Amino acid sequence: MTGQDARVPCPRCLSAQVPGGEALSALLRQWIGAIPEERRADEAVRRARLAACRACAHLNAGTCALCGCYVEYRAAHAAQRCPDAPGRWPA
Ligand code: SF4
Questions:
Q1: Scanning 12, 26, 50, 79, which has its CA 20 to 30 A from the CA of 18?
Q2: How far apart are CA 41 and CA 61, in angstroms?
Q3: Which residue lies with its CA nearest to atom 3 of ligand 1?
């Protein structure tokens, strides 16, 4: 498959690992950077949230099947919660 991305979509991947996802990943970093600092979750919180997402059956190639959000963007908002009931993100 010369010139094409032969990677297979992975439902457990975040944006950068999704085939062709580099541009999306860069865009998400831009959006996250635009969140006012006082409303942005800190790095440790984001990492813990995304670890839960990566272990979750609702993760689908960087988006949450329950809410439709890009999980990296959702996890970057301090006030956001996991939409599952009960929530899967650490408190
Ligand atoms: S249900 Fe929660 S843990 Fe699962 S992908 Fe969505 S936000 Fe992440």
A1: 79
A2: 22
A3: 53
